[in-house]
Specification:
CATH topology: Metal Binding Protein, Guanine Nucleotide Exchange Factor, Chain A
Structural class: alpha+beta
Order of helices and strands: HHEEEEEEEEE
Distance between the termini: 34 Å
Number of domains: 1
CATH architecture: Beta Complex
CATH class: Mainly Beta
Strand content: 25-35%
Number of helices: 2
Radius of gyration: 14 Å
Oligomer: single chain
Amino acid sequence: MTMKQETKDKLKQKLDADSYHVIAEKGTERPHTGKYNLHFEKGVYHCKSCGEALFADGSKFDAGCGWPSFDQEIEAGKIKEVFDDSHGMRRTEIVCAKCGGHLGHVFNDGPTETGLRYCVNSLSLNFEAED
């Protein structure tokens, strides 16, 4: 899933340069620098691009990898998986199913019963605390 140029143009107006680079240009933030890496409040993590709810606090865990990690999406179909062979690696990219914004990658080395580790850039997320 590739983000449409029209969407990228709108995002350039809406987002700061670092968030735009991650979401629209498939960039990544440096490990251990993201504001949600060690963030464990109750609430929901949303796509910074379109506002779609993606992950709940109960699925978040500290993987020690330097990026926010989750073991499942908030609801089936919120995340789309895309084959990624960039940078000489074979990985599975994850994007927001609603807008196509780049979130990070998913790996099959998670510690819970799902066996998954959604490794997400903080710059692609907004957090809404539970009331």
